[in-house]
Amino acid sequence: MNDTTKQGHELDVLFINPGGAARIYQELSETLSAIEPPLWCRLIAGYARDRGRRVGIIDAVAENRGPEAVASKVREVSPSLVVVVVFGHQPSASTQQMVAAKITCDALKDICPDTPVLIVGGHVSALPERTLSEENVDFSCKGEGHITVVELLKELEKDGETRDFSRVRGLCWQDKEGIRLNEMAPLADDLDGDLHGDVWDLLPMEKYRAHNWQCFGELESRRPYASIYTSLGCPYKCEFCCINAPFDVNRYRMRTPERVVAEIVHLHDTYGVKTFKIIDEMFVLNERHVLGICDLLIETGLDLNIWAYARVDTVKANFLGKLRKAGIRWLALGIESGSDQVRDGSLKALKNNDIVAVVRDIQKADINVIGNYIFGLPDDTLETMRQTLDLAKTLNCEFSNFYSAMAYPGSPLFGLAREKGWRLPESWSGYSQYSYDCQPLPTDKLTAADVLAFRDLAFQECFTDPRYLDMATQRFGWETRQYIEGMVKHRLRRKILEEQAAQ
After folding, report:
1. C-alpha atoms less than 13 angstroms from C-alpha of 246 in its C-beta half-sphere
2. Who contacts 474 (Cβ-Cβ below 8 Å, separation ≥6)?
3. DSSP SS3 for 71
4. Which of the residues 225, 320, 337, 446 could staple to 210 if both were Cys, CB 3.0 to 4.6 A apart?
5. Strands 171-175 and 275-278
6. Cβ pair 328, 308 in contact under 8 A
7. Is the dihedral of CA 264, 327, 244, 432 positive or negative?
8. Distances from the Cα of 316 to the Cαs of 285, 293, 333, 479, in angstroms?
9. Could you tell me which residues come within 8 angstroms of residue 92 by beta carbon, excluding any fewer than 6 positions away?
């Protein structure tokens, strides 16, 4: 938090990134998971500060603050408005963050009940009325949130009788006649001007930590760390993805390469950050945008370790060398399935041979690959899930993420699940891939327990495979191999699997 907040002076708006990693990740939260700067806290706070508002941020995750400690700090600084931000660091993270948001909002209303609370985020934007009715908040938001926050502050500053919350775009609120949802605020067109997020001075920069795999071979470099964005939204419509819930449209917007690189240089020179994540859901997409950033990064001469997302069908071999020179050391690919039929059903019409060729091209450019795979997509069977695991082992990427299909609010799968009457998680924590009560989607051929058991099996089978361990040793050294072997010893407890075993 900034000096003004620490001294206990009143703020106009205080943004909260709620904690709760242990519930979401179990023991993985202690050392294995990343701790990332809260993107949307930064973006909305920067927009408000540019308009003369006194802002502060409490990053409860990085600062390891419990809900009561957060609420006590809120009471101390007495802001005009508290904004609980539950966007997360990938689209799926917003729903699982609702667990921490709930207990934080409950603590806020217990300790400082008269402080207005607005909740924003991807999950909230997908279910604004439900969120308002279920959570201990005064307002919820549909949309990105920056305009909603500033307009809500203006209304809160008025006398009670003259306040008109119907004027606040994107606001979901309640009066004696029931819950009301206002028209959405427009999306920001000028990302560099409106959503620059240049409020790094409000964050505990020494607390952030990179993903463990990003620093294979140099594990001590996980700190300092920062995540930035270069674009918002995604033009694709994958059925399992909820990225466009806050935007309500499939729209892709980009920052200018000059501002992106200026931010990286600022973080490097001010905080010593060399390890970065580009948080875009799809960084390697627009060639002019990507190569513009790469050219400017190469000109800086900085020695960086950056990872970013790409699609198999957007990676072009002719510019991989430039990506590597710019500091891109890892690319994450959404491979999803080893079955052509399952991928086609998920709107990813790729062939296994194409996937293998692209992965090998990336690796030849000295860029590591993270393969992302999903088990339990609607057309999956035990046979097709095995095909996915076999493909993962064939590719032998430098790291792999194994997920089970979830019907996240805001995704097409959420509507399909309700249409088919499939059982959804009983609590928002059940949407976390690593939680005890994780509850994947069933399919026509598989139960949720089948899917989750196979996902956990795939993780163990892949990371204990001698071929993978030998590759990791050759690529990153013995220390990393030993780290991986220790990582695999962490076995997640699963409620539905324990219940199944007890029957």
Report:
1. 30
2. none
3. helix
4. 225
5. unpaired
6. yes
7. negative
8. 10, 16, 13, 33
9. 242, 406, 408, 431, 433
Q: Record the pTM.
A: 0.92
pLDDT of residue 474: 98
Please, which pLDDT band fits residue 2 given cuts at 50, 70 and 90? very low
Helices (H), 234-273: 257-271
Q: CA 239 to CA 290: how far, in whole Å? A: 26
Q: Are 181 and 229 in contact (CB under 8 A)?
A: no
Question: Would 3-181 and 210-502 be classified into the same CATH topology?
Answer: no
Question: Distance between CA atoms of 408 and 183, rounded to whole angstroms?
Answer: 23
For residue 369, give the H/E element and its range.
strand 368-375
Nearest CA to 39 out of 276, 302, 273, 219 is that of 276
Instruction: Say what angle helices 257-271 and 287-300 make with each other, to 10 degrees.
Output: 40
Q: Give the distance from CA 366 to its chain's centroid.
A: 26
Break the chain into its structural domains and give their ranges. Answer: 3-181, 210-502
Length of the chain in residues, anyone?
Answer: 503
Evaluate if residue 8 carries a pLDDT over 90: no
What pLDDT digit, counting tens, does each position of 85-141 carry?
998 666 566 888 999 999 999 999 999 999 999 999 999 999 999 999 999 999 999
150-186 residue pLDDT tens: 999 999 999 878 999 999 999 999 999 999 999 999 9
- 412 sits in which H/E element: helix 412-420
Q: Are 169 and 139 in contact (CB under 8 A)?
A: no
3-state secondary structure 317-350: HHHHHHHHHCCEEEEEEEEECCCHHHHHHCCCCC
Distances, alpha carbon 12 to alpha carbons 45, 79, 109, 316, in Å: 11, 5, 18, 47
**pLDDT interval class at 277 (50, 70, 90):** very high
CATH 3.10.20.30 applies to domain 3-181:
no
Q: Which residues contact 321 (CB under 8 A, 6 or more apart)?
A: 365
C-alpha 422/C-alpha 413 separation (Å) is 11
**Assigned token pair, 94:** 């917003």
The sign of the torsion formed by the CA atoms of 97, 243, 277, 477 equals positive
CATH class of domain segment(s) 210-502: alpha beta
**Dihedral, CA atoms, 337, 358, 222, 3, nearest 10 degrees?**
-90
